[in-house]
C-alpha cells in the first residue's frame, strides 16, 4: 500500500497564475528550439532560457534547486535527463538534444521539456522523438478522459504512456524518474510513473496540476547517474528522448499550461472550454 499522498488542489484563479508561468516556459523553449543549430553550445541555450525567463519577471526555478547550477537541463544523445549545460558541449549535426526548463512566476511554477534534432538527424531519431511526444500526449489525454468520467485514477496516465510506447515498437521506458505534481512548488506529490497498471492511486480531479514527462530510449531502459551527481545516461549508450508538459485538470477538461495553444491541436475538445482568466498578463 502506497503512502497517503497530499495533493495540492488549485483554484481556477491559481491555475490562471500557473498558465502565466507556463507561457514563460513555452516562450523560452520556443526560443531555444529556434537556436538549436550545429555549433551552438548548451551554455548558449542556457543563457537564452535565463534571459527569457528573467525578462518576463519570472525566476528560473532550476537554478539553485538542490544546488543545480543552471536554468535548463540539456541532455544530448545518450544523456537522458538532468545534464548540466556547458560552453564545452557544442552541438553537432545529427545530435539529439532534450531541453528541460522551468520558471516560477508570482509563486507558481511551470515545467516543460522538448527534444529536438540538431540539423539533419537520422529517421530513427526523428521517430524516437515522435514516440516520446505521442506517449506524453496519450498520458495527458488519459488524464482528461479519466477526470471527465469521474472514475479516472493516477496510474491510468502511466498505463496510457506505456501502451503508447509499446504500440510504437521496441523502446525502453526509463524507470525511477517520472512526472510529478506541480504548483506552488516545482516538485509535489504525486509521483507519476511512466509505466504500470491502470486504476491505481488517487482519483483524478479538478484542481490537480501534473507534469507529464516520459523518458524513452532506443535501446534498453537502464540508466545510471554520472559522478557529477546530476547527469543521467543510458547504460547501453543508446539515444534517449525526454518531453514534458505541465497540465491542469479543470472542471470540463484539461489545460496544457506549457503549450501555447493549451493543447488544443493535439487534444481537441479534451481541452477545457472554460480557461480560467489569466489576470494581470
Ligand atoms: N524538470 C525536471 C524534472 O521535473 C527538474 C529538473 S531538476 C533540476 O524532472 F535540478 F535540474 F533543476
Ligand atoms: Co518535471
Automatic annotation (TrEMBL):
Keywords: Aminopeptidase, Hydrolase, Metal-binding, Protease
Catalyzed reactions per annotation: Release of N-terminal amino acids, preferentially methionine, from peptides and arylamides
Residues that, per the record, bind a divalent metal cation 1: 100, 111, 244
Annotated binding of a divalent metal cation 2, by residue: 111, 180, 213, 244
EC number, as in UniProt: 3.4.11.18
Keyword Zinc among record annotations: no
CDD domains according to UniProt: MetAP1
Co-factor binding comment: Binds 2 divalent metal cations per subunit. Has a high-affinity and a low affinity metal-binding site. The true nature of the physiological cofactor is under debate. The enzyme is active with cobalt, zinc, manganese or divalent iron ions. Most likely, methionine aminopeptidases function as mononuclear Fe(2+)-metalloproteases under physiological conditions, and the catalytically relevant metal-binding site has been assigned to the histidine-containing high-affinity site.
Molecular function per GO: initiator methionyl aminopeptidase activity; metal ion binding; metalloaminopeptidase activity
Domain Peptidase M24: 17-249
Cited InterPro entries: Creatinase/aminopeptidase-like (IPR036005), Pept_M24 (IPR000994), Pept_M24_MAP (IPR001714), Pept_M24A_MAP1 (IPR002467)
GO biological process: proteolysis
Co-factor(s): Co(2+); Zn(2+); Mn(2+); Fe(2+)
Residues at which substrate binds: 82, 187
GO cellular component term, pick one: cytosol
Function description: Removes the N-terminal methionine from nascent proteins. The N-terminal methionine is often cleaved when the second residue in the primary sequence is small and uncharged (Met-Ala-, Cys, Gly, Pro, Ser, Thr, or Val). Requires deformylation of the N(alpha)-formylated initiator methionine before it can be hydrolyzed.
PANTHER family: METHIONINE AMINOPEPTIDASE (PTHR43330:SF27)
Protein family according to the UniProt entry: Belongs to the peptidase M24A family. Methionine aminopeptidase type 1 subfamily.
Subunit structure: Monomer.
Protein name (database record): Methionine aminopeptidase
Source organism of the structure: Dactylosporangium sucinum
Organism classification: Bacteria, Bacillati, Actinomycetota, Actinomycetes, Micromonosporales
Amino acid at each position: 500500500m502506497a503512502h497517503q499522498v497530499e495533493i495540492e488542489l488549485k483554484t481556477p484563479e491559481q491555475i490562471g497564475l500557473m498558465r502565466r508561468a507556463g507561457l514563460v516556459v513555452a516562450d523560452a523553449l520556443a526560443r531555444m528550439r529556434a537556436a538549436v543549430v550545429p555549433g551552438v553550445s548548451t551554455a548558449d541555450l542556457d543563457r537564452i532560457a535565463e534571459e527569457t525567463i528573467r525578462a518576463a519577471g519570472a525566476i528560473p526555478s532550476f537554478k539553485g534547486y538542490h544546488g543545480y547550477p543552471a536554468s535548463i537541463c540539456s541532455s544530448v544523445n545518450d544523456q537522458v535527463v538532468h545534464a548540466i549545460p556547458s560552453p564545452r558541449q557544442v552541438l553537432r549535426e545529427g545530435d539529439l538534444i532534450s531541453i528541460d526548463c522551468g520558471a516560477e512566476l508570482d509563486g507558481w511554477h511551470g515545467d516543460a521539456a522538448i527534444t529536438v534534432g540538431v540539423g539533419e538527424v537520422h529517421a530513427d531519431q526523428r521517430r524516437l522523438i515522435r514516440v516520446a511526444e505521442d506517449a506524453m500526449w496519450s498520458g495527458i489525454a488519459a488524464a482528461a478522459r479519466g477526470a471527465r468520467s469521474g472514475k479516472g485514477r493516477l496510474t491510468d496516465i502511466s498505463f496510457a504512456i506505456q501502451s503508447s510506447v509499446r504500440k510504437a515498437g521496441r523502446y525502453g521506458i526509463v524507470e525511477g524518474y517520472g512526472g510529478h505534481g506541480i504548483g506552488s512548488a516545482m516538485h509535489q506529490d504525486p509521483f507519476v510513473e511512466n509505466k504500470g497498471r491502470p486504476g491505481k492511486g488517487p482519483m483524478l480531479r479538478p484542481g490537480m496540476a501534473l507534469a507529464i514527462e516520459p523518458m524513452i530510449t532506443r535501446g534498453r531502459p537502464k540508466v545510471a547517474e554520472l559522478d557529477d551527481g546530476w547527469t543521467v545516461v543510458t547504460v547501453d549508450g543508446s539515444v534517449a528522448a525526454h518531453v514534458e508538459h505541465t497540465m491542469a485538470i479543470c472542471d470540463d477538461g484539461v489545460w496544457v499550461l506549457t503549450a501555447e495553444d493549451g493543447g488544443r491541436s493535439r487534444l481537441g475538445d479534451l481541452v477545457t472550454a472554460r480557461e480560467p482568466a489569466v489576470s494581470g498578463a
